[in-house]
Input
Amino acid sequence: MDRYSAMFQRLNETNQGAFVPFVMVGDPDIETSEKVICQLIESGADALELGIPYSDPIADGPTIQAASIRALKSNVTPDACFGLLSRVREKYPDVPIGLLLYSNLVMARGISEFYARAKAAGVDSILVADVPLREAKPFIKAANASDVAQILIAPPNATEETLREIGKHSAGYTYLLGRAGVTGVETAADIPADTLISQLNAYQCAPPLLGFGISSPAQVQTAIKAGAAGAISGSATVNIIAQHLNNVPAMLAKLDEFVGNMKAATQKEG
Amino acid sequence: MNQLDSKFGDFGGMYVPELLIPALDQLEQEFIKAKDDPAFQKEFTDLLKDYAGRPTAMTLTRNLVSNPKVKLYLKREDLLHGGAHKTNQVLGQALLTKRMGKTEVIAETGAGQHGTATALACALLGLKARIYMGAKDVERQAPNVFRMRLMGAEVIPVNAGSGTLKDAVNEALRDWSANYDKAHYLLGTAAGPHPFPHIVREFHRMIGEETKAQILEKEGRLPDAVVACVGGGSNAIGMFADFIDDPSVKLIGVEPAGKGLHTKEHGATICTGSKGILHGAYTYIMQDKEGQIEESYSVSAGLDYPAVGPQHAHLADIGRAEYVAVTDDEALNAFQLLARKEGIIPALESSHALAHALNMADEAEDDTIIVVNLSGRGDKDLAHVINILGEDFNGSL
Output
């Protein structure tokens, strides 16, 4: 069984949703980032969503843009990220790890080669933020060839046709957008997205994780109540890194507290 | 799925977040409907004629070229209202905005030319404009910032990244992702995701159509070459579009070689770049080996862009158009020559095209007719050029 299926099965059995934090690999540098990522897992993250720093992140708000810039300033390359991922994978063989990145990083290496490299580093899924379904064919093909799940996005304005296509191709999980716009806590997610969630289920899409604008345990609870299989929190997590750049122990302690609280909110009632 | 072809060979496409696909589809559909709507076409044509001043003149240079075998013509987009070709397609897209029932316009601008054109069209048509401009550019282009604000547009400085055009485009796309319901993204060049390269070309194609009619009337034959500068490539594709099926006409795009192609400071995307994705299109871009986008450079802000319209990438790949590069110094030289010899101050962008045409004129052995698309006027560049040429120049007068 793949790691996402195993995770969802385990969470079903314990009547929980998934909490999935996002951070940028290499933010603010590889060494600190490795500590951050291990901390997230130790603190109870069910899976990880990880970015690879990119110069022009058009789907990201100011918080995650800044994380990219910090990492790029530390000369973090995709290869350095893969190196870190391999070490994390060795330490934590079961936690699902997804990449969230931009198309040109994939194109620069060659689509198949990039996916194969990611697989070798222990990556379970890849979401390319600027590749919509319409351009996804070669990416899905490479994903299948490398046995990596291609994550597809269900936006709040998705047409029936889009949802049907997602159902046809989706693997791992479905990234459910809580609202329009870019990443960031400036605008809260629009929950419940229950209509969209029931449509996704009808089209047999992979379990939906709600992201964009998730920063509090209450939102996680609401998302799961609305039928999401879990929630992804990026900017709120990255903010903690940004606020403690000069004090790594405090950064890790704060992340521990944050992940603990968010994870606790995934417990369903009854 | 798309009704128009979203690719030019391998190039183009729609590499944007899924969220923006419905807005791009809506734009494509509205454009197709408008194309067949006589009322839309009449309003667009009337605005171009009575507001913007089309058709623009075709000027045979008198003193610039010494080779008697060469006739060098200038297509005078510098005379268009707004001071550059940009006004053409902005009027078209502003009318589409109204057709879609949207009330706000988002735009990006580098030097401020597209921002100025957007501001004037929005003032005229009662649309609310907000224009993203790199913080560095806001500083460098103060008069254009004032022009935009004077016409009621909101100018938003972008501090992210390098604070130039590429970052302004990123920010405009982010804004659009949140506000596509009520706002249209009025992209300023023939680049970006489908359908922009298609729409922008169609709203600029009168440049080539007029050129063809004017040159046939004056010379009784087609020109041997049409020459245009290429940043994103909107004035060039507008000039080329009607000549693509005339194989005797050479299509020449001139990219900015900045401080030289051997340096890192240039913006010659097709001449030196590699294939990749930026701002929604697969095209030639400037990038490092990891795929991080590199900064471009040119003395002319309008050519300072690390990607190029996908149709140009295609025309280059199939060999239908030729792309060359001209340095800052060569462009500045052509800028001064045109002023001195013909009494016309060209935009620094257009000066690149002119500089290459002058080289062609020097080398021509047979009777040759060349048309340069003089895409804009140079008033906007005066402060910048004064800084570069400085006291030496004043002293030499």
Q: What stands out?
A: Chain A has a mean pLDDT of 95. Chain A touches chain B at residues 54-62, 65, 69, 72, 77-78, 102-109, 129-135, 152-155, 157-159, 162, 177, 180-182, 187 (CB under 8 Å).
